[in-house]
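Field reference: sequence -> structure
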Amino acid sequence: MLKTKETRNLREFTCGKANSFFFTNNKMPNVKISKSDIRFHEATELPFGALSIMSPHTLVVRRVTYQSVYHFFLCMKYKSSPTLCEQIRSAVSQWELDKIVRKAEAEGLADPDWERQMIDVMVLGVYYKFKQNADAAMVLNGTGNRNIYDHCADPFWGDGGDGSGRNHMGSILMAVRRRLASEEKVKEKKPVHEAQRPAAPVGSSVFGKRK
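Structure field:
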């Protein structure tokens, strides 16, 4: 379960003035995607497949290892059932995960407060993925300052396929990209003896104190 303080910090970090419209209940206006913008969806698509939550980049959160961001996301959604979470963590295909999710939904195992938490959970998973996997971070950093769109029919996480969706996934990736760039600048400014200090333990708050 996400700690209250950690959830607040994640929300503050992700929902700055430049990004707040992505996280409101208002429908995002239609946008015209330019040729320079990044569009991705499937993990197998090159060159931006590493941006997908299904890309095979493991992440460790609170000493627990997950095969992908999607595995972590689902485990948090059904965290009330440890047995189900173990099944999710060991699933090796999209088909297997979909089968588990269908069964879990039929049994009503989702966290009752999930809709309020799910964006924060996704931000946390995406952040740790790129923080812990240099090859994936290289792909994300390589997008520069270009807009990123999860190009699919999903109107919530994606762009709806025609630019009418809210594109929460794209906005999270852009927010994490900025966060990682900011952390790198801070690291470069630190004296050598400070830069070499051990990193904070996985699972601790990485977003600073709430102002």
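Note: The longest helix spans residues 168-189.
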